[in-house]
Automatic annotation (TrEMBL):
PROSITE patterns on file: ABC_TRANSPORTER_1 (PS00211), ABC_TRANSPORTER_2 (PS50893)
Domain of life: Bacteria
Molecular function (Gene Ontology), one example: ATP binding
Record protein name field: ABC transporter ATP-binding protein
Keywords: ATP-binding, Nucleotide-binding, Transport
Similarity comment: Belongs to the ABC transporter superfamily.
Pfam entry (one): ABC_tran
Domain (ABC transporter): residue spans on this chain: 6-240
Upper lineage: Bacteria, Pseudomonadati, Bacteroidota, Cytophagia, Cytophagales
Length: 240
């Protein structure tokens, strides 16, 4: 039997005196898009922090049948992660930041080659942000920075991609484009995408699943007009 791409078994995670994820179990059988939704503070980022080894957890996470290590370094081959806030403390050109997405294929002191830069240029072109290529990253607007991080994530090309509100600062046009882009990662590259979002209406055209962490016992539900609208209504009310 083929291994499922992702299986979460009885995951428990949270902080010192506050368990936020209680006995979460679900299975993603094949490469899929999974929208993680829920009220502010319901534990969405906490869930991704557990998967990325930033906080300890109980339970099991299996990726393609293998237990995901709990150490950040060892996880890097399997998954890429775009946090909600990602600061860069030094002035770096956009093209240089994007090419770093290939770090998994490099040894410590390796230089990036012209073929690597060609790949970086290609994803910048794909995201329609080639004009930002030689700009200093820290001078860009919040939305432009978000698109640059997405370009870097594309170069990482891991089986599992975790994104924490990747469309938060984007305009209406770019929000739609980024949701289309995530759908194409699933379809064309067979990647599994877990995306935290509050943009429920943008989920309507997509195929995949929805996981509402505001629910007392969250489960994967197929994305459809009915499920999205039902959850939108739930989220319009206070956290139970
Ligand atoms: N390091 C920490 N120590 C203690 N509590 C924390 C820590 N980080 C987050 N929390 C708390 O855990 C709860 C869940 O936080 P989390 O960031 O997972 O929520 P979220 O669902 O992603 O919310 P949002 O939609 O606002 O991004 C919040 O109440 C938050 O204050």
């Amino acid at each position: 039997m083929k291994d499922s791409v992702l299986e979460i078994k009885e995951l428990v995670a949270g902080y010192a005196e506050r368990v936020l994820i209680r006995n979460l179990s679900f299975l993603v059988p094949e490469p899929s898009f999974v929208a993680i939704i829920g009220h502010n503070g319901s534990g969405k980022s906490t869930f991704l922090k557990a998967l990325t080894g930033q906080i300890p957890y109980q339970g099991q996470v299996l990726v393609q049948g293998q237990r995901l290590p709990q150490r950040t370094g060892a996880i890097a081959k399997t998954l890429s992660y775009l946090p909600q806030k990602n600061n860069v403390a030094f002035p770096v050109l956009v093209r240089e930041l994007v090419v770093m997405g290939l770090f998994r294929h490099k040894k410590l002191l390796d230089h990036y080659t012209s073929a690597d830069y060609a790949q970086a240029d290609s994803v910048l072109h794909h995201l329609q942000i080639s004009h930002l290529s030689n700009r200093t990253f820290t001078d860009l607007s919040g939305g432009e920075q978000q698109l640059v991080w997405l370009a870097q994530l594309m170069l990482q090309n891991t089986p599992l991609v975790l994104l924490d509100e990747p469309t938060q600062q984007l305009d209406v046009y770019h929000k739609k484009r980024v949701f289309d882009l995530m759908a194409s990662w699933v379809k064309k590259q067979q990647q599994t995408v877990l995306c935290i979002t509050h943009d429920l209406l943008n989920l309507l055209p997509l195929q995949g699943y929805l996981l509402n962490l505001s629910h007392p016992q969250p489960t994967l539900e197929p994305l459809s007009l009915e499920t999205v609208l039902a959850h939108q209504q739930l989220l319009e009310n206070p956290l139970p």
